[in-house]
Amino acid sequence: QVQLAESGGGRVQVGGSMRLSCAIAGGSRYTITMAWFRQAPDQEREIVAGISWTGDATYYTDSVKGRFTISRDDAKNTVYLQMNALKPEDSALYYCAGDRTGQSTIKTMRWQYDYWGQGTQVTVSP
Description:
Layout: E1 3-7, E2 10-13, E3 18-25, E4 33-39, E5 46-51, E6 58-60, E7 68-73, E8 78-83, E9 92-99, E10 115-116, E11 120-125
Parallel strand pairs: 2-11
Antiparallel strand pairs: 1-3, 3-8, 4-5, 4-9, 5-6, 7-8, 9-10, 9-11
C-alpha cells in the first residue's frame, strides 16, 4: 500500500517562496503519476500541478503557471512543489495525490487519484 506524507507548509509573506515535499512509501511508486491539490475553506479541492510517472510531462492550473514548479526525485521517493511569488489566494491545505493506474497521462479530477496524504497548510500573509 502506497503512503504519502507532505511536509514544508507554513506561513509566508506575499511574494515569498515555499517548497512542499511529498514522501512516497510502499507499492510500485515508480509508476505513479503524482499531483498536488489544494483546498481552501468552503471551496472544492482543485488540482494545482501534476507530473507523470515518467517525469517528462507536467501540468499546471492556469493560476499558478510561471510561479509553481512540480518535480520528482525517484531516487529519494519524493515529489516537490516549488512555489514562488506567493499570493494570498494561494493559501490552502495542500495535498499530495497519486494515480495508481500506471498511466502517464496527468489526470485533473480529485476522484481520479487513489492515494492521498494528510495535507499541509500553506498560509500567505499580506
